[in-house]
Amino acid sequence: MAALRPGAKALRWSLCRAVSGGAGRLAPDRGADAAPSRVSRFCPPRQSSCDWIGPPDKHSNLRPVHFYIPENETPLEQKLRELRQETQEWNQRFWANQNLTFNKEKEEFIHSRLQAKGLGLQTKPGQKATVSAEEMADFYKEFLRKNFQKHMCYNRDWYKRNFAITFFMGKVAVERMWRKLRQNRKMSV
């Protein structure tokens, strides 16, 4: 990890505070209605005042984000946070299901190819039988072909969600700027 410049920590802290909007709390885990792939036990400190990124999920391979909730969160900031949470959960579900499907089909493919060659799953005791890279390339190509439409729909929805999040981030930034300008005017009067 690269060393930080002397003022970098203060800059990062102020950016974190600016994005989060001040003091508050972290969004609670959703418990029973959470996506099934969210099994991480990661929990940031209670006094934290910014979003935290946890370790990769074992099913989706994505890092879950624990969203910080400021005490004075405006309705627009709340809508942005909820949209980000919903998008993260949607993304976690998609990739957990996609990875499960991929691994299942890959194991079936390997098993069928080994059976076609008259081999079992193990060639020698403690040694696992494998298929060639060319055969695996055939599997990958076929898997991508079969799931092309699913991936296209995912990409389209992903872009829509990201544009919506970016739009709300702009609205929140403008709202915070106006709030700060109003506070400065009150202080100068």
TrEMBL record:
- Pfam families, A to Z: COA8
- Tell where it localizes: Mitochondrion inner membrane
Put simply, this protein is called Cytochrome c oxidase assembly factor 8
Write out the similarity annotation.
Answer: Belongs to the COA8 family.
Q: Which domain of life is it from?
A: Eukaryota
Q: Name one GO biological process term.
A: intrinsic apoptotic signaling pathway
Principal subcellular localisation of the protein:
mitochondrion
Q: Which PANTHER family match?
A: APOPTOGENIC PROTEIN 1, MITOCHONDRIAL (PTHR31107), CYTOCHROME C OXIDASE ASSEMBLY FACTOR 8 (PTHR31107:SF2)
Which keywords appear in this protein's UniProt record, sorted alphabetically? Membrane, Mitochondrion, Mitochondrion inner membrane, Transit peptide
A cellular component term, taken from the record's GO annotations: mitochondrial inner membrane
Topology in membrane: Peripheral membrane protein
Write down the InterPro entries for this protein, in alphabetical order: COA8 (IPR018796)
Do the record's keywords include Transit peptide?
A: yes
Signal peptide extent: none
